[in-house]
């Protein structure tokens, strides 16, 4: 299963591995309920997409259930994934994302409501979560057990805490512990899969049933093709040349332009250029030119000026893409951890930042 992506990038990834599950970018349940225009645009699927997988987050069982009934009733989705792992302050400070599993009774209520809302439409619900908020408050085993007991179809563990954010290494041992504790449903592992061999090793070492890819596919949508080959015991193709990688980059940009319009698309695409170039020895001046690209034509000109035969440097495929920051101070609603057993939906009027330990 791929991490959260918009429609153009999902289309790009499906060209390399059409049979996998690619999850749409995360939307807030309350925004779905209220028909927020931006959220509606984010929930975009192409006609050929199958399954149509949508990720939501929320901390109110009734609101999340209503959002799920709305999208399922409209026949808009085939799969719902609930994000209980997002560490972003704008999410946790409202009691959402990675904050929810700290309150197991509230978590159970949310999961139960979500599964019940999706059940009449035969839409499976999966959940993704982290080890916990901090090392001193680990919740992943309890979260996994609640998921299994409440009818969740599969669970995914990003083997870091919210405080850890994206720093350091993922704790794959935790994935193995979760699989042992929750043997009755599929357990997917997430964290530090940069090459296909990493996925093979994670499954072998942890016993997990599959993997979720997040940052590893940034600038490397062909990773999914490599995963399919490696997990089926077939040889993996060598890393693409710079010319091959840039051809994919251009196609991705073109799809995004069709989705957003050139101005907005190219502003958004600048960060992708850095990811596509990661590992290739092109020099800082070239990278800076790509980072300020203003039009698709300019992107094509920049690509044409490169040597297409350049290959990835040794270890270049393992250079991290995307977020690398952490640890962070976790933002939570005021008093959020005072009563972990309550069912009160958080009041986000006051926020505090906490560090574990």
Explain what you see.
It is built from 14 helices and 13 strands. The chain is of the alpha/beta class and about 350 residues long. It has two domains: about 270 residues, Aldolase class I (TIM Barrel); about 70 residues. Strands 3-4-5-6-9-10-11 form a seven-stranded parallel beta sheet. A two-stranded parallel ribbon has the order 1-2. It is globular. The model has no long low-confidence stretch (mean pLDDT about 95).
Characteristic key phrases:
357 residues; alpha/beta; TIM Barrel; 2 domains; seven-stranded parallel β-sheet; two-stranded parallel sheet; 14 helices; globular
Question: Which secondary structure elements does this structure contain, and how are they paired or packed?
Answer:
Blueprint: E1 2-5, H1 7-16, E2 22-24, E3 27-28, H2 29-33, H3 37-42, E4 53-57, H4 61-73, E5 79-84, H5 89-92, H6 104-118, E6 125-130, E7 132-134, E8 137-138, H7 140-149, E9 154-158, H8 172-181, E10 187-190, H9 196-206, E11 210-212, H10 223-231, H11 242-260, H12 262-277, H13 284-291, H14 296-304, E12 330-333, E13 351-354
Parallel strand pairs: 1-2, 3-4, 4-5, 5-6, 6-9, 9-10, 10-11
Antiparallel strand pairs: 7-8, 12-13
Helix pairs in contact: 1-11, 4-6, 6-7, 7-8, 9-10, 11-12, 11-14
């Amino acid at each position: 299963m791929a991490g959260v992506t918009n429609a153009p990038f999902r289309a790009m990834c499906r060209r390399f591995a059409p049979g996998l599950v690619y999850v749409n970018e995360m939307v807030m349940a309350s925004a779905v309920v209220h028909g927020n225009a931006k959220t509606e645009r984010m929930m975009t699927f192409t006609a050929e997409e199958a399954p149509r997988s949508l990720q939501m987050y929320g901390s109110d069982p009734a609101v999340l259930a209503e959002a799920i009934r709305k999208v399922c009733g409209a026949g808009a989705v085939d799969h719902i994934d609930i994000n209980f792992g997002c560490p972003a302050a704008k999410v946790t400070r409202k009691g959402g994302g990675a904050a929810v599993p700290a309150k197991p009774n509230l978590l159970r209520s949310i999961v139960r409501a979500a599964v019940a809302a999706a059940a009449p439409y035969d839409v499976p619900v999966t959940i993704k979560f982290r080890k916990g908020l901090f090392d001193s408050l680990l919740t992943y085993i309890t979260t996994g057990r609640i998921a299994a007991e409440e009818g969740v179809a599969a669970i995914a563990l990003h083997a870091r805490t919210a405080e850890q954010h994206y720093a350091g290494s993922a704790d794959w041992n935790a994935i193995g512990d979760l699989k042992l504790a929750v043997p009755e449903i599929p357990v997917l592992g997430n964290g530090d899969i940069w090459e296909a061999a990493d996925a093979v090793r994670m499954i072998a070492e942890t016993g997990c049933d599959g993997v979720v890819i997040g940052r590893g596919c940034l600038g490397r949508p062909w990773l999914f093709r490599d995963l399919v080959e490696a997990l089926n015991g077939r040889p993996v193709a060598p890393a693409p040349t710079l010319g091959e990688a840039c051809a994919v980059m251009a196609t991705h940009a073109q799809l995004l332009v069709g989705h957003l319009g050139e101005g907005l698309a190219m502003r958004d695409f600048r960060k992708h250029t850095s990811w596509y170039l990661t590992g290739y020895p092109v020099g800082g001046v070239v990278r800076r030119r790509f980072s300020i690209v203003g039009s698709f034509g300019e992107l094509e000109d920049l690509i044409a000026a490169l040597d297409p035969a350049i290959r990835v440097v040794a270890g270049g495929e393992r250079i991290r893409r995307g977020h690398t920051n952490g640890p962070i101070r976790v933002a939570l609603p005021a008093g959020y951890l005072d009563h972990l057993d309550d069912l009160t939906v958080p009041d986000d009027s006051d926020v505090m930042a906490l560090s574990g330990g």
